[in-house]
Amino acid sequence: MNTAHLDTLIELTDVSKKFGKNWIFKNVTAEFEVGKKYAITGPNGSGKSTLLKILAGIITPNSGTIKFEFDEPYQHISFAAPYMDLPEELSFNELFRFHEDIRGFSISRKDFIDKLQLEGDKEIRNYSSGMKQRLKLALAFYTESEILLLDEPSATLDEHWNEWYLKTVQRIAKDRLVIISSNVPAEYAFCDSVIDIGSFKK
Hints:
Layout: E1 8-19, E2 22-33, E3 37-41, H1 48-56, E4 63-68, E5 77-80, H2 92-102, H3 109-116, H4 129-142, E6 147-151, H5 159-172, E7 177-181, H6 185-188, E8 193-196
Parallel strand pairs: 3-7, 3-8, 5-6, 6-7
Antiparallel strand pairs: 1-2, 1-4
């Protein structure tokens, strides 16, 4: 899809979410423009991850509207989060082939393995937590998509791989809409705008 003629890819109007009787946030109104980088910030429990899950289509808001500027929006989104499950019974090679058939990659399997320093024939269940996290990030980075959603991207990464995250996300995200949920400033220092989800409390 060519998004060059579009300004706003996602528009939220009065989006609210509660769990039980407790409102997490109320009346979030925001526009997310093509090619821009946004950070959703706030302390633990403020609703950062919840809003990102709403944008990813994982959960639905209790009220408000979400407008995407294209049909079948979730085919245009890549998402990575520490709590996201991977098919751990598969090897990376099997996962790559499966994912490639569904979404497509901007990188070859060999380059993927070389960049991530992964063992292609090893079952994902036997990867360390850090390896799993960088695999989740790389799957989102290298999937062909217009929108990149990242929740706490540097969780479980050591210093070397944190530097890889920062360099890679800025390089591959030049023409994509990027939204990062985080309360770690270093993870989103390159973003154009910061949305404090705490400001939308009742």
